[in-house]
Design goal:
The complex is a heterodimer of chains A (350) and B (111). With 350 residues, chain A is α/β, with parallel strands linked by helices. Chain A has 14 helices and eight strands. The model of chain A has no long low-confidence stretch (mean pLDDT 96). Classes of the chains: A alpha/beta (350), B mainly alpha (111).
Amino acid sequence: MIKSLKASGNKLAMIENQLKVLAGEPFKTELPTFVEKLKPLNQFPLKPNKLEIFQINLGYMCNQVCKHCHVDAGPDRKEIMTKEHLVRCIEILKVNKIPTVDLTGGAPEMNPLFRWFVEELSKIGVQEIIVRSNLTIIQANKKHYDLPEFFKKHNVHVVSSLPYYQAGKTDAQRGDGVFAKSIKALQELNAVGYGLEGSDLKLDLVYNPNGAFLPSDQGELENEFKKNLKKDFDIDFHNLFAITNIPISRFLDYLVASDNYEEYMEKLVMAFNPAAVDGVMCKNTISVDWDGYMYDCDFNQMLDMKVADKSAQHINDFDLEKLAARTILINQHCYGCTAGAGSSCQGTVA
Amino acid sequence: MEKSYYNPKDLKKFGDIADFEPKLAEKFFDYYGEVFKEGALTAREKSLIALAVAHTEMCPYCIDAYTEDALSKGISEAQMMEAVHVGAAIKSGATLVHGVQMMNKVKKQSM
């Protein structure tokens, strides 16, 4: 198993080094910065729309170490959200009626309070609870075997990464044996009713490219995944979200180490789609880290770019009005969300 | 003068052919765009045909472009290589079938 950037002492584990790369070439001389792209569209400063998704990172611990992971998650990451912060999140959600709670990690299920938290969210009537499950967690330990039943009980919307419908590319990105375990987990989710046609138990998959290229048409990829997963493994799912790899953290390390960085950034800039700007997830999402700080998105969280208003950066100071009035912080990595048909945690946006 | 006939960066300048002759370039790029739209053939099928032809034409720009296009469309390595073999089979078949012409000539001119 590969190590996280942090555990391996990689210089890109230091956020300032990632920001240095993003501030350097090709943006110094050749390519426009993201700010320069937004200005002529009257989209700078970038402002949020109504808050619809409260995305909570329950911790960076994960049973997998995926090569592209923007969280730099892994078994060695000990950052985990405490009960105090989880309780505060529930208070916020009770008062503010944000329709969707999106639980992510790491593997969110590895937070010992995960089930308690989902039960509490269920009790206060959150409209939609999303869990970003890596699938293999369901088989990682006996205590997780009944997760499909638990998800079903609370009508959790399961969103799972599966970068390909065959083992080779999936294991190359997510680790040896991940594909086989993911398939088994998907079959178990199907067995309790997830992902079946007409079922309210939503099971969506996330595709992200296995290298330095952009995803193609989401609908076309979904058709291929559906056809092949059904034929080879009798697996059903609802939607496929095609997500662009964002040039931060481990994917940035891969781009730099493989000498693909400048070319990849050029591809993102060339594929910039003004129509995607209105749909980017930072417009309707707040991302909360394990320590209770808030960010415009999960990627800004990993770059430690907290929401701009210093008086309302922590959940203890949550203020919906201040968040609504904030300016969204941007950098060159934002090109990842506006390339082609756009990219968000819910797939394409334009 | 360039020291090499092929420069990977030139692929991005393809559109610049319009600088010297805009009307024909516009017609070509419109036609090109139309050809690759989903039609009786899917965009994936067209991408694989393009990849095979890129190899038989031995065009490094086209190989770069359609390998990446195939990757982004989720086409597997095995599918890509089979497409290249289709191109290679037609290319070698086209060479070998001319062997019949050679044989005809040999037979006509031999006792």
